[in-house]
């Protein structure tokens, strides 16, 4: 099965270099505020897409269990170190275009700082839609091309692409900015109802972050986030979307029953402890150091 290319963070020190030591305290704190405002108070099983090293995972405290999904096993290993050993977290390496989960499994999902790596964003969103229960809440963050900096650069002739057009712009390989209206249309087309929109990182300017104390910028950003229902002119936009119906919260006790084979979609997987075997197509999927690896079968 051919799928779009994946931005692979295998071997990356992204958490350390970008977040811990990269001067991103302002961005992290404002995103935490947005998540707190959008997350449901409780839930049974959360899917965290593009979980990375688990920067946001502890913020989903209202959910009984969280599945951390990332394409990079090294990112998931860093998340394991960060979060410790507990049955509350399940670690899965997989391609978002080939999600290895049974349909209607999760009653919540988040995708933060991940959609901007999707060459086929509508296709990725459609895959996420399939694994959510009726009534599920989906919190999506995306990089907006319709931000003030891009608009000014375009008007001053320093940028060729228009921030007002609907199509995504790939400014670096596998790094995309999206128009807010396009993202809303994609979500609605696959059955989501958009409940709330917040704009985040209003003051993501290097000079401002150097001159103004972080706490003040965070407080101002917190107040400005509510303007997202009126306009979206920031580099980061958060959307809370939901599906119709009631959340059942029903989840099989056996984790193996959560999975399906990405090669043939069969749910008949046999647990051999260090790998899962599909009884329909015989694909074997590794289980290493607590990480279920559904990227490539062992026997191909």
Account of the protein in words:
- The protein is an alpha/beta fold.
- The chain has two domains: 235 residues, Vaccinia Virus protein VP39 (Rossmann fold); 39 residues.
- The chain has eight helices and 13 strands.
- The protein has an eleven-stranded mixed beta sheet, sandwiched between helices. A two-stranded antiparallel sheet has the order 6-7.
- Strand 4, helix 4 and strand 5 form a beta-alpha-beta unit.
- Helix 2 packs parallel to helix 8.
- It is globular and about 60 Å long.
- The two termini are 13 Å apart.
CATH class of the largest domain: Alpha Beta
Specify the structural class.
Answer: alpha/beta
**What is the overall pLDDT average?**
96
Number of domain modules: 2
List keywords for this structure.
single chain; 300 residues; alpha/beta; Rossmann fold; 2 domains; 8 helices; 13 strands; 25% strand; globular
Could you write a compact summary of the structure shown?
The protein has 300 residues and is of the alpha/beta class. The protein is built from 8 helices and 13 strands.
